[in-house]
Amino acid sequence: MKKSKGEYCPHCGALMVEHKHSLGVGLVESLRRIWECGGGPIKLKELKLTYNQESNFQKLRYWGLVAKADHNNKRGGEWLITPKGDLFLTGKYVVGKHAYSFRGKLTRREAPMVTIHEIDREGIYYVKYSEYLERMNPKGEKIQMELNLGI
Question: Residue 11 and residue 13: Cα distance in Å, rounded?
Fold first, then answer.
C-alpha cells in the first residue's frame, strides 16, 4: 500500500502516503497517564497532557493500547485503556516498535518487538504487576484471568 512521494488520488486529489509512527516515551507517558486516572472512559483534556501528547494520543490505537469509548464519535469523545494497554505497562505484552497508517487507519505493524522496558529505560512509567492486579481486584479475591489478546 505504500505510495511513492508525489502520487495523488485521481478522485479527490489527496496525497497518497503511508505514515510511519514509532512508539516512544511521549506516547508511553500518555498511556500511563490514562492508567493513573482509572483507565477511562475519560476526555483527553482531563489527562492534562502536553499539546504534543494530546495531538498524538490517538496513535496509541495503532498498537491496540487505547480505544475510543464511543466508536461512533469521530471527533473528541472519551478514551479508555485496553487490556493490551494495561499489560503493556506491566511489561507482560510486547508490540512492534513501528506502526503504519494510511488516512488514519492502521495498515501494518513492524518489528523490532519491544516491551515498555525498551522504551522507558528509566522505569518511570512502568506499572508493577502487583499494582495492576490490585487495581483489577481491589478486594483481594482469588481470580483467574483469561485474556483473548487477538495477536
Answer: 6
